[in-house]
Amino acid sequence: MSRGPSVVSMALATRTDRRSSMTRTLWDSSVGKKTIMAVSGLIMLGYLVVHMLGNLKIFFGSDEFNHYAHWLRTLGEPFLHYEWALWIVRVVLVAAVVLHAVSAYQLSRRDIRARPNAYVHRKARASYATRTMRWGGIILALFIVWHILDLTTGTVHPGGFQAGHPYQNVLDTFSTWYGNVIYIVAVLAVGLHVQHGFWSAAQTLGVGNATRDRMLKTVGNVLAVVLTAGFVSVPVAVMTGVVN
Amino acid sequence: MKLTLRVWRQQNAETPGAMATYEVDGISPDMSFLEMLDTLNEELILGGDEPVAFDHDCREGICGACSLVINGDAHGPERTTTCQLHMRSFQDGDTIDVEPWRASAFPVVKDLVVDRSAFDRIIQSGGYISAPTGTAPDAHATPVPKPDADFAFEHAECIGCGACVAACPNGSAMLFTSAKVNHLNVLPQGAPERETRVLDMVATMDEEGFGGCTLTGECATACPKGIPLPSIAAMNKEWLRATRKVRR
Fold first, then answer.
1. Most Cβ neighbours (<10 Å): which of A149, A227, B20, B178?
2. By three-state DSSP, how is residue B115 classified?
3. Cβ contact (<8 Å) for A115 and B170?
4. 73-102 in A: which are within 8 Å (CB) of B?
5. Amino acid A145: pLDDT
6. Residues in domain 2Fe-2S ferredoxin-type (chain B) (predicted)?
């Protein structure tokens, strides 16, 4: 559907080539899909920062950690009903994950089609974080499923899941070797994903320019390091017995 | 200099190609890369073989006709066009791999020649301005702020060679398209089509089968004219603005 300069006849022709709506334009364009990825990615990034800060409450003991978890359920009361705020956040996050993943899948298909033949003379180029965005995203999607089944629903939780006792549940998970391995791998994937993703989102949203480039890269790097360190500190603390 | 060349040979778009190995001797370090290929072709013709087909025109680094991915780099190891690349950038006895631009939007015509008319169609869809015909307007009739003029000129330097597409792991034409969009969109002369230009050129870019941008930065590294990577962010900004402002 090319919208090039149509040669309009001398008599006034009825316009039949109306432009698509803004939503349609966004979804149909590679630039628009990247915009969707940028916005959904930033929503998830914002959530991760809050999630990481909340996790650190584990260092203040079981009472404070469990109380925080309970408070999340009463957030917004009495205007909101019990757990409604949490469910609103969950719905927004699921929408963000789905839009992010679907856009990423469709854009990746387009990208692979656009370069069907590799060069004979290959060179390793872009940074590790940039090259691992797709695999990192897949790892994170699988991790999210395990993480929810482990610590939200308790379906695959080791050693008897206790609803309302997140402190004990966290200890259970990080007392298994595979719990630590899965979690730490995923957290490293988060760090790499954010390192390229934050700066990339800024470019996609048109915020980037030559003068802001260094600042945006620094913010992305700091976010990546802080998130990785913050999340990793919990299993490390459990393994070393700092949290028990 | 004595060199071993491994060159992509492909009869036409339909037949599959392969790398062919040639030895060339007596290469001067002062030769351009294209003159070195001319030397190879002379030998091939004398030997009754078909010469290697490659694109070239001005050989001054300003027309954008020459291409070639040399040892995995678009336009080779120096940041310039292939015609301005000299053999002094290589060592005696080197083996050099020469391949065409690789992107599905740039199908191989023959050997190292690819069809870059997809770029022409992107330009056709918005790379123009509405100018009144007749006598030339006075040079000072339309004031342009100096920073805007500099910005426009920086992007007007794009020669449309396609190195950005060749270097991009996604075969994306975002740097090319952004150079063309930014060049005209910042100027008062380009204002009437500011929204339609970016929307239509990006839409044509997608239709032609170029990939999307993943901000790897390979394009800006390969660009012989130094179109900077933030150009893409500037075009994204224009595109997002246009989706809101364009008349439907």
1. B178
2. coil
3. yes
4. none
5. 97
6. 1-102
Contacts of B69 in chain A (CB under 8 A): 119, 121
* Spans of all domains in chain B: 3-109, 117-245
CB of A7 less than 8 A from some CB of B: no
Residues of A numbered 31-70 whose beta carbons fall under 8 angstroms of chain B's beta carbons: which are they? 31-35
In tens, the pLDDT along B2-37 reads 999 999 999 999 999 999 999 999 999 999 999 999
Q: B171-191, pLDDT tens digit by residue?
A: 999 999 999 999 999 999 999
Nearest CA in chain B to A109: B211
Residue A136: predicted pLDDT: 96
Distance separating alpha carbons of residues A100 and A197, to the nearest angstrom: 12
Domains of chain A and CATH, by start: 29-112+126-240 (1.20.1300.10)
- Top-tier CATH class for B3-109: alpha beta
Comparing CB atoms, the residue among A19, A26, A133 nearest residue B214 is: A133
Distance CA A31, CA B20 (A): 39
In single-letter form, the type of residue at position A143 comes to F
Which stretches of chain A drop beneath a pLDDT of 70? 1-16
Position B62 scores a pLDDT of 95
pTM: 0.93
Which of A30, A115, A122 is opposite residue B103, by nearest beta carbon? A115
Helix (H) or strand (E) holding B97: strand B95-99
Contact B207, B148 (CB under 8 A): no
Contact status of A116 with chain B (Cβ, < 8 Å): yes
